[in-house]
Description:
This is Integral membrane protein. The chain is 69% helix and 2% strand.
Amino acid sequence: MGHWWERNILEPGKLPLLLALGAFVITFVVTRVITRLIRAGRGPFGNVKAGGLHIHHVVPGVVLTVVGGFGAVAADRHGAGGAVAAVVFGVGAGLVLDEFALILHLDDVYWSEEGRKSVEVVVLTAALVGLLLAGFVPFGVNDMTQEELQDRGGVIATIAVNFLFSLVCLGKGKARLAVFGVVVPLIALFGAVRLARPGSPWARRCYRRRPRARARSVLRAYRHDRRWSGPRRAVQDWIGGKPDPRPVGAAHDR
């Protein structure tokens, strides 16, 4: 275990990344526990207010992210300063992304259906950072041999092809596959060769005169959503709490 830690974490300088990821996940979990207790009216916690203004935790999150980010840039990643800056950045990022939906909609949608986007972004971010921590390099350059890495043309071609696959996934309305495909190329390839989702730019342009392809796209999307939307919502509710049944425009007091 000690040899693995030294070889895979300390020597490559990944300790700050590990600390940032740990602080990010822990901050998100603790924040969600506290907000759910506030929502249920339990515990000693309450909303932070200043002069009647509700201070959302995205505000201190932005401050911590800025401080931790600049601190990480200025510090040595192998030193104690880099580790402290990484923890500060992780805490700030956890607070900010926990209210990602609020930033996106410019409205307090924390406990609404739109608030699920915060949970999705947090899970997606944690998964991507975990892949980077495990050694996956964006665009699959880590899959190349040493001889291929020495060939600059081969590296550029690999990056270009994988980036193209990710763009195709994005154009087909498969944002999650596009994001993960940047790190794991086979995921992008899988999404690129399959039918586009209805309503995506690819479907509107390429299926306009292909009624069969358009119908297959709609049917496949319907079957996919019917199969996975329920489990996905259940996991999101377990992680972030069940959305409030009130209208999106209503006030959401935490």
